[in-house]
Amino acid sequence: MSARVDAWIWAVRLTKTRSQAAAACRAGHVKVNGERAKPAQSVKPGDEVRLYVAGRERIVEVKELLTKRVGPPAAAEAYVDNSPPPPPREHVALAAVRDRGAGRPTKRERRELDELRGRQT
């Protein structure tokens, strides 16, 4: 017995929609047992699925096949999560914020920002 990889990723709630799961497959962000997966590729219990989504890599092992979306507790029982832990929130880079109504940065301000960021002009 097997299930489509895009439907399984969606059913176990690794992506919000099935179309997002299929798009991730087409973009090469999904690998099944180390091989790049197309949306219709089959998965079976014991397969390793690697998915790069939302800026982090998820590594899961298929325990149970699902083709319909289920609640979070049931979805969590359908796979074994071997993913590395997400980075702590302190280490996530903050975006620069400009004051509201300040307009676009001047050429001088842009150069100073680039210098702070370590970019070469």
Protein described:
The structure is a single chain. By secondary structure, this protein is an alpha+beta fold. It has helices at residues 5-11, 18-26, 72-76, 107-117; strands at residues 3-4, 30-32, 35-36, 42-43, 48-53, 56-62, 79-81. The strands form two sheets. It has a five-stranded antiparallel sheet with strand order 3-2-5-6-7. β2 (30-32) and β3 form a beta hairpin. The radius of gyration is 20 Å and the shape is elongated.
List keywords for this structure.
121 residues, alpha+beta, 5-stranded antiparallel beta sheet, two-stranded antiparallel sheet, 4 helices, 26% helix, elongated
- Work out the number of β strands: 7
Helix/strand-derived class? alpha+beta
Uncertain runs with pLDDT below 50, 5 residues or more?
Answer: none
Note the gap between the termini.
57 Å
Lateral arrangement of strands in the main beta sheet = 3-2-5-6-7
Please tell me the overall pLDDT. 89
- Rg, alpha carbons: 20 Å
Order of SSEs:
EHHEEEEEHEH
Helix content: 25-40%
Bulk shape: elongated
Main sheet, how many strands, which sense, barrel?
A: 5 strands, antiparallel
Total helix count?
Answer: 4
Approximately how much beta-strand content do the residues carry?
Answer: 15-25%
Give a short summary of the structure.
This protein has four helices and seven strands; from the N terminus they run E-H-H-E-E-E-E-E-H-E-H. The chain has 121 residues and is an alpha+beta fold. The model has no long low-confidence stretch (mean pLDDT 89).
Layout of strands and helices, then pairs:
Layout: E1 3-4, H1 5-11, H2 18-26, E2 30-32, E3 35-36, E4 42-43, E5 48-53, E6 56-62, H3 72-76, E7 79-81, H4 107-117
Antiparallel strand pairs: 1-4, 2-3, 2-5, 5-6, 6-7
